[in-house]
Each structure stands twice: as structure tokens, then as C-alpha cells.
Amino acid sequence: MTRNFEQFPDDDNGNVLWQMAEDGDDLAEAHEIEFSLAFQSEELAEKCALYLLKEEQKISLFEDEESDINEWIITIYIYMEPEYSDIVDLEEWFTKIAEQHGGEYDGWGCMAYVYDDEDIEEE
Questions:
Q1: How far apart are CA 38 and CA 66, in angstroms?
Q2: How is domain 29-115 classified at the architecture level of CATH?
Q3: DSSP state, 93?
Q4: Domain spans of the chain?
Q5: Where's the Regulator of ribonuclease activity B domain (predicted)?
Q6: pLDDT in tens, 77-102
Q7: pLDDT in tens, 22-66
Q8: Cβ-based neighbours of 123, under 8 Å, separated by 6 or more
Q9: What is the DSSP annotation of 5-47?
Q10: How open is the CA angle 7-26-76, to the nearest 5 degrees?
Q11: First-residue to last-residue Cα distance in the chain
């Protein structure tokens, strides 16, 4: 498989999407993509979480106790086809929202959806 740099640009997002495609993940299928925002205080995280809920976003909020610093994480769950331009647009929006609420954008990820034809049995 040859990499199409228009579909998978040579940057972090393009590299992740390319790796997903190389691993056999069907990028034409919708995935639940998780975007993360990080905050230094519970109060800031809660204000941002309330804003995101008003924007009708599906979120979770938790304290990252494994972090060296006391950090609160908001995860936003978006069900979408993992397309480069859409991910970049959402990253820009979430970066702006995080900054407006005293936090920072902390990246995205999703579960891989890889199916082996042999795993699907016909009855």
C-alpha cells in the first residue's frame, strides 16, 4: 500500500491515520474518537465541561491521579469517520475552547476497528 500524502499528510495526524490504515483499520467506517483537554484545577475543568455540555458534546471528566501534577482531564467523544481535515478542524476548535477556559488541548485517539475475515463465521 502506497501512502497518499493528500489523504495522509506528513504530520502527527496524518501519521496516525496512515498507521491505522496500514494496520487494516477501515477509515470509511465511523469511529468514536476521543479528544482530550487538560486543566490544572477542578474548577476550570468543570467550567469547561459545562460549556461543552451546552454545546451538546458527549464528555467525561476525571482527575488524572497518575500524573505528576494534579491534572483534570475532559474527554470529548465524537462519533465520526476519521478524516484528516475533520480531525484538524476539531483540534482547532477544542484548542480554542481549552484556552478560553484556562486549559490546553491534549490530543486525540480512538480504538482500532480491525476485522479479520476468518473471525467472521457464517451460520
A1: 13
A2: 2-Layer Sandwich (3.30)
A3: H
A4: 29-115
A5: 11-110
A6: 999 999 999 999 999 999 999 999 99
A7: 999 999 999 999 999 999 999 999 999 999 999 999 999 999 988
A8: none
A9: TTTS-SSHHHHHHHHHHHTT--TTS-EEEEEEEEESSHHHHHH
A10: 80
A11: 33
In this structure, what C-alpha cell is assigned to residue 91? 483540534
Q: Is 37 exposed, middle or buried (0-12, 13-18, 19+ CB in 10 A)?
A: buried
Cell 480491525, residue located: 114
Statement: residue 109 has pLDDT above 60: yes
Say how many C-beta atoms besides its own lie within 10 A of residue 70's C-beta: 12
Indicate the DSSP class of residue 68. S
**CA 75 centroid distance within chain:** 8
Q: What is the distance, to the nearest Å, from the Cα of residue 53 to the centroid of all Cα atoms in its chain?
A: 17
The single residue listed with the C-alpha cell 463465521 is 121
